[in-house]
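Give me the fold.
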Amino acid sequence: MGAFRARLFSTLILWGVVVGVFLSGNFAAVVVLVSLLGALGCVELYRLTQSIPGRDCRIWALLVSLVFLGVLAWAFACGCEVSERLVEGFRLEMGALVLVLLGAFAIRLRHEITGPESVYPVAMAGFAFLYVPVLFASFTIRLTHLPVELVSVQAGLSLVLLLAIATKFTDMGAYLVGSLIGKHKAIPHVSPAKSWEGYIGSMLFTQAGAFAVYYLAGDDFGWLGSWVHVAVLAVLINLAASVGDLAESILKRSLKVKDSGHMLPGIGGVLDLLDSLCFTMPVAYFYIIIFVN
């Protein structure tokens, strides 16, 4: 009961901050919030992986990631000609990835080649950059701009809020339904607590969260054209969020840790908060640019 209360308290505080920032219509505040969460996630991932080889490559990846998040926030908040050219076509993300890999390989020149494990630190550095800075922060900020030309900045903020709430309702549904009636284990070797009953509950919660924001936001979603897109997005979000949650479970179990951190009582660390968003945001982005825009 104590763990549930701590989780509930942290959840209410977080949602109060997130919803307040998004409903304020202040795009700069949203960019700062997303970039700050991304930076905290990067630091947390570095701390999680300190015990495995290749620390020097991951330090380099962390430094590039933090600079990238700062430039990303400036580029979208600034809106000048230079910043627009920088973010066009994912140029900033690709440039930073090249910098991470180039630097990581340069660092490995100091070490003896001992087999495939000599490349693992470079791969881990690339993963560290892609996981939170790109999959979460970059795609989240870019999603705010998808409907802007058709409607308004607030429409973009409402879209991201819908995706975030639907994602977290997936986690909430799986947790609540699984705790109450979960009997059949889904993937016990990865996450012993996950059940098939929880997954069914998560799908219902995802649809409910998505449609709640869709109807409450009203005209902000006129550019979608049909509620069918909301239903499809909710299905995709549910699947992507489930994989994202299990992906972090794989990461934590391979590193033999229970939580990614202790910043959020009852929840764990920042990565425990962002894990599913790292997959739902890119999936939603590509669905919208292919089938809506």
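The mean pLDDT is 87.
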